[in-house]
Design goal:
- The chain is mostly helical and 214 residues long.
- It has one domain.
- 65% of the residues lie in helices and 0% in strands.
- Helix 4 crosses helix 6.
- The longest helix is centred in the middle third of the chain and has 32 residues.
- It starts with a helix and ends in a 7-residue tail after the last helix.
- One of its GO terms (molecular function) is metal ion binding.
Amino acid sequence: MILSLIALIVAITIHEYSHARAADYLGDPTPKLQGRLTLNPRAHLDIYGSLIFLFLLISGSPIIFGWGKPVVFDPFNLRQPRRDAALISIAGPISNLSFAFICSLMLRLVFLLGPMSIFISAFIAPLLQSLIVVNVVLAIFNLIPIHPLDGFKIVEGFLPKEQAIEWHSLERFGYIFLILLIFPIFGSIAPLNLLISPVINFVLKVFLPGIPLV
């Protein structure tokens, strides 16, 4: 539980900080003015999103989701609003997957060093495993192309203008679509589980070979 909590705080902080840093780099000072250009977790954590994510993760639920405090940016400060909004959105998931990859390399290094001390085997290795799992789950979940997840703006940013306008009109239905995905309304298994579990397991096979899948 403690390791999962640490991993969750790290993953959300990296995710939201990357959104803020990307927005600032692309010309929008809004996240900086709101104090989001920091790696201090208190600036990025949403209490309800964090608790739900942690509860589902440690309970072994097949449905895992959660969220941090959204980074607000002003599209009027961006040179190419649709494209730049997509880049800001994709920065979060990419940062999580990149961090998971780094942790995967560190975990392999730990095992290659041979016999591990009690501290490493009891804390460092399990922590790295938790960091990998939580970062991968958070990244893949946010890539779903449904508002308010990052995937929605990513798709919108790379569509031609006319199609992007049509796509944007679906934004108001985002929460409805998300609820239909999260809860097993039409069967015993939630559509979200069927949708992202294969992707998550594929990524974890690469990052955690030989480790039980989620």
